[in-house]
């Protein structure tokens, strides 16, 4: 009997040792993936120099809800901190102390926004570049002009510091969800669709507005099981809402039944959309085949 117990102990000890080795291996793999993003080529954009570029870029920053994560002055903010993940920040984008604005060249902004790779060559997490890769060159140039014109704000948000489990989660298990793994880096860039009330321009607005972050990539909704904020099924919206109700919801956050939509839906930012942009969104939604609600699978 003692012999059996001894062998059981040896086997369990061996299994624990293997698990420990596997965990340490995953930790180092995750860290390497996060610190050294795959090499992707920036897609140059001609910088906007006309007087209206900064103001147009301001609108794009609102439409893409940049301040939702980076702060009202783009001064940066802590995104998540504490066990078991560690610390992840949305960087200070200005030229102030602690900001990246003084270090970033146009090519760096392009890599970060459309590819999910920062100027240090690190894999960016949480940043939805897998939607912002939709940005056409002219609109991206305006957005960069605005970012470079932002007033300096001193705010030291600190570097990303992941704990043991956080490095494994972000660098291994969630790695294929980050933009560097999702984006077709050779296909980004190109002309902006004509700003008209068309489904094509509406599809463009869905991308740069990152609608899929809350409503799922197929826009069939997130009902509490997907790893993203809640968002209803947009593919069936056209059959139950009118265009006027949709415009009101996007601009004011008021649903047709009078309910105030949660601020998780960045309608405060989407209020900056022009009439053409909102109507184009509606035109695009009307082309979608109605899908059953996502169940989180």
Describe the structure.
Helix content is 44%, strand content 4%. It is mostly helical. Helix 1 (2-35) packs across helix 7 and helix 11 crosses helix 13 (275-285). 37% of the residues are buried. It has a three-stranded antiparallel beta sheet. It has two domains: 1-186, no CATH class; 199-285, Orthogonal Bundle (Cytochrome Bc1 Complex, Chain D, domain 2).
Question: What would a concise description of this structure say?
Answer:
This protein is mainly alpha-helical. The chain contains 13 helices and three strands. The chain has helices at about 1-35, 55-65, 65-70, 105-115, 130, 135-150, 165-175, 180, 200-210, 210-215, 245-250, 265-270, 275-285; strands spanning about 75-80, 85-90, 160.
Per-chain topology:
Blueprint: H1 2-35, H2 53-63, H3 66-70, E1 77-80, E2 86-90, H4 106-115, H5 129-132, H6 137-149, E3 161-162, H7 164-173, H8 179-182, H9 199-208, H10 212-215, H11 243-252, H12 267-270, H13 275-285
Q: How many distinct helices? A: 13
Report strand order across the widest sheet: 1-2-3
Task: Write down the overall geometry.
Answer: globular
- The overall pLDDT average reads 90
Parts with pLDDT < 50 across at least 5 consecutive residues? none
The gyration radius over C-alpha positions equals 22 Å
Q: Can you count the beta strands?
A: 3
Largest sheet: 3 strands, antiparallel
Structural class: mainly alpha
Q: Tell me the number of structural domains.
A: 2
